[in-house]
């Protein structure tokens, strides 16, 4: 193991990459059955803009208008093998939790916590203890348990009549796409990589067929399913195509998925959570066993995310009977996508 591997951790595994999906399953609910009732101001969402799993929570929090009820702590784009850190904050300490590492909140509740320190995580501010890092459940609970604190006009991201279909699509997208790109990037053998590559692009072809005749993945409005796919698509050309060797086609060379991704990116609540600089820094600087030099590429062109997509011709209403979220508060704004002239 090189010195950089020791600092950052090692990600490539022998053979096929297998994700640890054992998360802290404690839930924050209206009835508080796990000991954590929904309360405005009690909890802090800790995320990182670089991470696709955390990015989901940033989007749903924005769309539902939970900013006033649930504060946000942001880790920087890099971390070492121990923990995500609050190096974006003055003194490298989260101003609400008073800790330099997210690991501190995990160990406050589980002194012998045996797994990786992951984002997103929700921390109970009074105790400083992590409540949950179960990212798949967190966003669903935002929709179903935090209803009292939704903004007027919040969309229905997990409508009851569509839940079975959303769950089915989410399951497919998670295994074949969200995790599929990691299965390619962290493959430890040619055989494992080849199999992962084929699975990924079969799934992207399936999504292309599905989205060629409908604007959104399930129903005629944005749902949880679109949020989960979008965070992978947003990272595809800047990271996964080259860094993870998912290189049959760039996203920009898959017309249906490219139009779909730009449609969402240009929808309030999606693109305004994306920080391409942090995304590239995270993957290329942290995964030193894949990118030993830590060099971060200048490309690709990002201004094309703002080009017309023409998806409205398929119908659909992005927010259903709801309304778009207001602009992000100043403290949560991301850098704008650079124009062509700025990238030259």
From TrEMBL:
Stretches for region Disordered: 309-344
Superkingdom as given in the UniProt entry: Bacteria
GST C-terminal domain span: 159-283
Matches recorded under InterPro entries: Glutathione-S-Trfase_C-like, Glutathione-S-Trfase_C_sf, Glutathione_S-Trfase, Glutathione_S-Trfase_N, GST_Omega-like_C, GST_Omega/GSH, Thioredoxin-like_sf
Compositional bias per record (Pro residues), positions renumbered to this chain: 323-338
Any single Pfam family the record assigns to this protein: GST_C_2
SUPFAM superfamilies, A to Z: GST C-terminal domain-like (SSF47616), Thioredoxin-like (SSF52833)
Name used for this protein in its record: Glutathione S-transferase C-terminal domain-containing protein
């Amino acid at each position: 193991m090189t010195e950089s591997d020791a600092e950052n951790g090692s990600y490539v595994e022998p053979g096929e990459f297998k994700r640890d999906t054992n998360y802290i399953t404690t839930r924050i609910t209206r009835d508080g059955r796990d000991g954590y009732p929904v309360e405005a101001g009690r909890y802090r969402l800790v995320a990182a803009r670089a991470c696709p799993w955390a990015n989901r929570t940033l989007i749903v929090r924005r769309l539902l208008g939970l900013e006033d009820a649930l504060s946000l702590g942001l880790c920087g784009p890099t971390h070492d093998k121990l923990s995500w850190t609050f190096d974006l904050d003055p003194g490298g300490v989260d101003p609400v939790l008073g800790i330099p590492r997210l690991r501190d909140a995990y160990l406050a509740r589980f002194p012998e916590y045996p797994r990786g320190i992951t984002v997103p995580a929700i921390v109970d501010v009074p105790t400083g203890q992590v409540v949950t890092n179960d990212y798949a459940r967190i966003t669903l609970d935002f929709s179903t348990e935090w209803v009292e604190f939704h903004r007027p006009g919040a969309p229905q991201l997990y409508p009851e009549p569509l839940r079975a279909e959303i769950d089915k699509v989410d399951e497919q997208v998670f295994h074949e796409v969200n995790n599929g790109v990691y299965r390619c990037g962290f493959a430890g053998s040619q055989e494992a990589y080849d199999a992962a590559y084929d699975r990924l692009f079969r799934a992207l072809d399936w999504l292309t067929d599905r989205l060629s005749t409908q604007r959104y993945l399930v129903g005629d409005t944005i749902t949880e399913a679109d949020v989960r796919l979008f965070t992978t698509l947003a990272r595809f050309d800047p990271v996964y195509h080259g860094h993870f060797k998912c290189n049959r086609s760039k996203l920009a060379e898959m017309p249906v998925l490219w139009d779909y991704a730009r449609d969402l990116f240009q929808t309030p609540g999606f693109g305004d959570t994306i920080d391409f600089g942090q995304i590239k820094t995270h993957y290329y600087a942290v995964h030193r066993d894949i990118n030993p030099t830590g060099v971060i590429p200048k490309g690709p062109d990002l201004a094309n995310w703002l080009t017309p997509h023409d998806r409205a011709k398929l119908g659909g209403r992005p927010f259903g009977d709801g309304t778009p979220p207001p602009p992000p508060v100043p403290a949560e704004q991301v850098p704008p996508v650079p124009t062509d002239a700025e990238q030259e």
